[in-house]
């Protein structure tokens, strides 16, 4: 069964807010390279949180349609 928790949504929203703040500060300071690296790091963290849920979803679909 899928275990989508509301805390994951809040964690992703908080991560997005933090990354946006860092990106804005770094961009205005003229550190464009660091700003883009910050965005990439945030994307990597978000993917690490979301990919297990996507795999769990595929397993549930496979179980429903009995595709073993």
TrEMBL record:
User: Quick check: keyword Transmembrane in the entry?
Assistant: yes
**NCBIfam families, from UniProt?**
spore_III_AC (TIGR02848)
Membrane-traversing stretches = 6-26, 33-55
Tree of life domain:
Bacteria
* Record-given protein name: Stage III sporulation protein AC
Name the keywords, alphabetized. Membrane, Transmembrane, Transmembrane helix
* Pfam families found in the cross-reference section: SpoIIIAC (PF06686)
Record-linked InterPro entries: Spore_III_AC, Spore_III_AC/AD
